[in-house]
């Protein structure tokens, strides 16, 4: 894996250390996460964040374990870090960090106080909501280590205040049970019970959200570090509270060994692929219905569009096809009126995308093509034919095949945004893209061909599907090329205003990256030419991926910053989306363009934001600072797929 380590210049500087985040997951949707400096900058940061019935319904439990070193002289040195609503940062333990590294996907900190060096390692148990934190004396001593257990129990998207009831902490042998929900255990537990008021999260302030909360100091653990190699460890877990986990050192060793096995099984070609394999593993989770994908940490749950776009990279490029098979079968069971369920994270199953189902057709086709698993193709074939039949007949939100040309149209309901560009501001879609979007129809053409092949593999007649494919493909080639030299983003879009007697529809030729799918998919409707792809790249390409809108558009927004309305307004109006590097790489390769340097910037990004992972988004203007989720499934998956397929 790539070498991710930082010395005192980064660790001791909040601009550097507190903007680089680490993540460790439990395979269930829960996690531990924070920053290199140890400063909590998000409401989502904590050492034990527990998944609920869905991966998105998480709760924050153990917020932190603040270390303090007690010397025989009576001196006490605090190694934690907190920012307060007053603006103070206290304590400032990051100033004593001499190194942070991410080894085998696990974070490790090393503090130096003169000749005393203390190291902290952290890991989670895969398949159980359990975190282990191990502190080891590397040199010096003897000293004593106190660990202040800072707790809460709240929704991960919110905060808890001292004006409400304090968390209930019941002392049990070796520690405490907090709110009956999670247990903490370690040496020499001393209950305390005190509010720490006004903890400040600078990233939430930057996002225009409430940045402050109050934390409950439940008590402290304490242990002696007399000689190098001695350890003081703490465990925290949810679920079966009476079932104690293995010792913390064993949890760390087991996590390290598992991560090495995951990487070895993927057979990566180089250190970057090995790192991306672990990033992919972090977003694949086990749920009550089988394997699933967390769209992004720390705040997203499972979304079918993200899952299907990510499918090949996460499962087929990492030799996890058997898990992928079960995921595809489970998602097929959600089909209704020819549409794939989008998400259940909102508390109910929603069917509100035009493209997730088409990405599902693509994922099944790729699975069978890459693995030769025709049994799965045969099993899902009736459901996939039902998808096409429902689209021909017309389904929710005015999604239907236009009998005039065989292309797919969408958006018959006001206020809907059904493509992946689905942001809304105060309930109004920013980019409704009503009509016939370019990537939707590229996926439709691609899906018809893929389904026709699956049908023939099953020994059935696919003539009707091939005729639909040929008709839609011919209409695509006729309708989407624009006089500008690239493709229309939407054709037959409702005109926002037109004079009496004028056309009621128009074709939108804004330069957006959606057209890349018209050249990149296996059964793409168009063969790319270098001149066209270069025009697209000239207007959209950045070191971290294509922008969502060309900077010369009047609607371009170059910074994905501010409060929710500002950020949602910029989301698809110029913001960079790293996942689109995958389609761009495919299109460029098919156009016989050299790609030797395409991934240089995004590979360097693996050490800049979400460590070892790829961010959701970035600013459209240089220097293209990362934004959104630091650990995003489709960003990781498409980089991994594009690199592997380019070998």
UniProtKB/TrEMBL annotation:
Residue span, Glycogen debranching enzyme bacterial and archaeal type N-terminal domain: 20-226
MF GO annotations: 4-alpha-glucanotransferase activity; amylo-alpha-1,6-glucosidase activity
One GO term of the biological process aspect: glycogen catabolic process
SUPFAM superfamilies xrefs: Six-hairpin glycosidases
Alphabetized Gene3D superfamilies for the sequence: 1.50.10.10
Boundaries of every Glycogen debranching enzyme C-terminal domain copy: 284-641
Classification via PANTHER family: GLYCOGEN DEBRANCHING ENZYME
Stated name of the protein: Glycogen debranching enzyme, putative
Organism: Micromonospora echinofusca
Organism taxonomic ancestry: Bacteria, Bacillati, Actinomycetota, Actinomycetes, Micromonosporales
